User: Fold Tn3 transposase DDE domain-containing protein from Streptomyces violaceusniger.
Amino acid sequence: MASAVRKEVNTSICTGIHDRMSAVERAGLLRLLEERDADGTTQYNRLKKSAQSPTWSHFKRLITHLDWVDRLGDTGVWMDGVASRKVTDFAGEADAADASELKAYAPVKRVALMACLARKARMPERTLIGICARTAYWVEWWRRFGPPSGNDPKLADPFGRYVLTTFVKGTNMGPYEAARHIPGVSGHELAYTANRHFSLVLLNEAIADLVNAHARLDISQAWGDGTAVAADGTHMDTYLDNLLAETSVRYGKPGGIAYHHISDTYIALFTHFIPCGVWEAVYIIEGLLKNSSEVKPTTVHADTQGQSLPVFSLAHLLGFDLMPRIRNWKGLTFYRPSKTTWVGFGNQGSSPTTTPSSRRRR
Assistant:
């Protein structure tokens, strides 16, 4: 009964997609099964274009590919009223079939499946676990993990186990909850891997590998050169019995602060969880010192939490520029580095003969 209802619903959806397309658009899609590219494959395979590394050359080819997909027709009109999950299911069925297999389908269903694949080709879905597996394959950050002895892991598939553990811990799902949804692995296996093969030091080494690989991408270099970072914290809810949890005056609720250094190449160089009552400027220098990647920022932008007289002094000594948003200008003290330095403020100015220890308020 259920299969009959499902078949009837799918048939009506395919018919609706088919009818919303013009005869020219349907003929254009069907030609993809016959016409071949220079490499001998049908143009239908071009709709299955897989993800490539984010370089300028691949980005330009992706724009050309998107223009080609758009010329097939307005997929938004074709999919009007169709649930996104159905579009994904039909596109997956079309992606799994080659041109010869698709020709065996009924004409209405064949056109509908190809239309759904064209729709997904404009913005294919990328899953978090797929991204983890892809980056682990190319960057090989998973090789950083292993038993404390330093020996090779005695796991049947260390690559898959480390990727799954990273995904489970990164999403805060928990090993036993994840095992209920991921076939072929138990909660004990995931928990054992996380407890015996992962550590904070190894995680930081893997993060440094990812940051270095990200910095070498063409698109990342177009965003920035890695010399500047933005420092800021975000309030996070926690359990009340957590050692770091306390009531935040700024946010009016208990929790902690997730403090980050975000590079101008749009990747986190440093992440630390701190109590709500701590002035964030204290962790600016710690973030720079603990950054083990090849990206070495020289300028730190922050909000008013980054304003601190001791950190300003240490920033000058350590050779980086601290540029926070300043509050309460009128109550601040400005210092001259020497007798001969003259500093002007608008129409007013301090005399060059003022002693170095003098202070001027504004």
Summary: The longest helix spans residues 2-19. The chain is about 45% helix and 10% strand. The CA atoms of residues 14 and 112 lie 5 Å apart. Residues 349-362 have pLDDT under 50 and may be disordered.
